[in-house]
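Journal club side-thread
Mid-discussion, someone asked how the predicted structure for our own chain would compare to the paper's figures. Pasting it here so we can look after the session.
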Amino acid sequence: MKIVSMHAVSREHFPNPIFTGPDVTRQILVPDSKEFSVNVVNFGKGVRNKFHAHDSEQILIVTSGKGIVATEKEERVVTEGDIVLIPPGEKHWHGATRDSDFSHIYVSRLGSVLTRLEE
C-alpha cells in the first residue's frame, strides 16, 4: 500500500497546446500505478482545455475553485466535491470560470488516447 498527500506533491508547470492559456500546473499523484493516470490539474482564472475526447472513461473530482465542464450540448458549473464521469468518445472541455481558479483530480486508464478536437 502507498499513501500520497496531494498537498505534499509539487506542482509542475504544464505547458500544452490543449490549454487556452499558460496558467496551468499539474501534480502527478500516483506515478507508480500500472492501471491508472491520476493527476491534479490546476487552472488559473479563465483557462480551460480545448474540446477533446478520450478513448476511455475520464473521472474528474473537483478539489477547489469553480469550473465549467462542457459538451457540445451543455455547460455545467462545478465546485469542490463534485464528481464528473465523462464517457469514452464524448467531445468535451473543462476549466476555470473567469472569476475563479479551479483544480480537479483526473483519473483515466493509463495509456488512454486523448484526441484534440479544437484548434
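Post-session note: The mean pLDDT is 97.
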